[in-house]
Amino acid sequence: MMYIVLTAMLALNVAAEVLEAFRVVDSSLLQTLEAVDMQNEQIYSSFEQAYIENPTKVGEWKEKADQLKNKSEEMITYVSALKDEVVAYSGEKPVDEDNPMYEEGFYHTKLDGSVVEVAKKDDLNGPSELMITQKRATDLKNEINEYRSFLSSLISEDDSELRETILSELNTDDPEEGAKGEGNYKTWESEHFEDKPLIAVMTLLSKIQIDVKNSEAYVAKYLYAEIDEGSFKFNRLGARVIANSNVVLMGDEYRAEVFLAAEDTTQQPEILINGREVEVEDGKATYIGNTSEAGKFTWSGLIKYKTPGGIIKSYPFEQEYQVSEPTVTMSATKMNVFYKGLKNPFDVGGGAIPNEDLQVQMTNGNVTKQGDSYMIEPTELDEMGRQTKVSVYATINGSRRLIGTTDWRVKRVPDPVAQINGQAGGEIRKEVLSIQDGILAVLEDFDFEFGYTVTQFTMETTGQGGYINRYPSNSNRFTAEQKRAMENVNINSHVYIGDIKARGDDGTIRDLNPISFTIK
User: Fold this and answer.
1) How far apart are CA 232 and CA 76, in angstroms?
2) Nearest 5°: phi and psi at 354?
3) What is the CATH number that goes with domain 329-411?
4) I need a labelling partner for 33 at 20 to 30 A (CA). Which of 240, 411, 451, 457 fits?
């Protein structure tokens, strides 16, 4: 159905709204791909556990499951590499300091983990030339056919229903002649990749990856069920519950499969959940829990099964899951901005998600963890906050998930103010000025432990005849010559101090505003 919708959209002019719709669909497909992959990993984990308990009985099926996993990973990698090639062929821009990410852009994560901006998501010529003229689509079709044949080899000839499902999921047949109107003949390759904009080609390739993962899931479940298919006398029976996650965000779906570890296809177990009998299909029942509010929820049940001797045995089970609100709080501990050259304290709260399951990453800088807090060290100035993003990820049941991203500004540490005796100018008594040792560079109302030291300044006084006398210093202290000049200044005359430079703790040099005093 999704493919039909996408094809219909392509019949329209490639307007910006259509391209954006494809971008949204592709993003959704990639999220679905991660979810299906997580479920497949749960099945492979069940194989590992079963093999530990009984390697003789499980060995044959685990070996096939390992082959299935490796072959599927190769197929997913092949399509991912093809995505990289399609994007590169039409043009790409690396995401870096000169080309930061922005909300409206279309980005692609490559196999090597780098992120690039897709330069021309509406490109019609490049994808067609690469996929059709250079026959990459034909190569892809051959890979799909080979993968489909491999899956079929793992399935028994008796299981025609599963075989038909795989053939349908990975179908590469050419459409019927004339299906596109006026007798025009279309191949599978041209139907999918000819005269399609780049964003549509990327979306279709994502769909193929999901088809591969779904087919892998069908066969993996089939192989796991085959462990006890040939033996009716089970040496162990037990209730099993496989949930998509034990921690879900509010509004997401909590789903779990309940089944007996060993299955007899001649009879179905009776399954009760929370005291009510539920529908059983292929030996399994599905429970969908409430996620409309946050909290911890417990559910339980009972599996009743008839042994070969006709005795009904019961196998109880109990599970719990936690629903968390999809929120994350991020705050700079001391300021609402980051300062370049400083270690900016940063706090993160994930609500019901433990701190040890949170990870913080950022663009334009580095993040280090110190206890339960973090230190942010920006790399470049970003006064407008356009290229500095802090993202928080959470690990939930082994799966890494983005739960929040915020934009931040990066400023330089402000200039200090030159002061003498705590004054930045104004009136000063002659005897007070004469006992001062030098000039201080003071950061006013700044919470960080950061200091400046004056490295040079020039003092000017008015001498006899109105001449200006200049006395330089190459440190923050008054020279002997400057001290003598202070002793000789007249009441109501002015002392001007300029050319002030100060070095910060980060090594930067700042030019400070001059200060002027009237002698009293």
Assistant:
1) 37
2) -60, 150
3) 2.60.40.10
4) 240
One-letter amino acid identity for 422? G
What is the residue extent of each domain of the chain? 2-225, 239-324, 329-411, 417-519
For residue 47, count CB atoms less than 10 angstroms from its CB and return exposed for 0-12, middle for 13-18, buried for 19 or more. Answer: buried
Question: What is 54-77 written as a DSSP string?
Answer: -HHHHHHHHHHHHHHHHHHHHHHH
5-23, pLDDT tens digit by residue? 455 444 444 555 555 656 6
Question: What one-character DSSP code corresponds to residue 517?
Answer: E
- Answering whether pTM is above 0.70, one says no
Q: How far apart are CA 475 and CA 493, in angstroms?
A: 25
Pairing of strands 247-249, 312-324: parallel
In angstroms, the CA 78 to CA 84 distance is: 10
Q: How far apart are the first and last CA of the chain?
A: 89
Report how far residue 285's alpha carbon sits from residue 287's, in angstroms, rounded to the nearest whole number: 7
At 72-106, the pLDDT tens digits run 999 999 999 998 998 888 888 888 777 787 766 77
The per-residue pLDDT for range 166-200, each reduced to its tens digit, is: 888 888 888 876 545 445 568 899 888 888 888 88
Tokens of 7: 């094809």
Place of tokens 């004339």: 178
In the chain, % helix, strand, coil (3-state, to 5) comes to 35, 30, 35
> Is residue 338 within 8 Å of residue 363, measured between CB atoms?
no
The phi and psi torsions of 336 (rounded to 5 degrees) equal -95, 10
CA distance 212 to 233: 35
Of 3.40.50.360, 3.40.50.300, 2.60.40.10, 3.30.390.10, the CATH number of 239-324 is: 2.60.40.10
Say how far residue 250 (Cα) sits from the centre of its chain.
19
Distance CA 176, CA 173 (A): 9
The full 3-state SS of 147-171, as one line of letters, equals HHHHHHHCCCCCCHHHHHHHHHHCC
Cβ-contact 392, 404 below 8 angstroms: yes
Query: What tokens appear for 54 in the block?
Result: 């009984």
Half-sphere exposure of 435 (CA within 13 A, CB side): 5
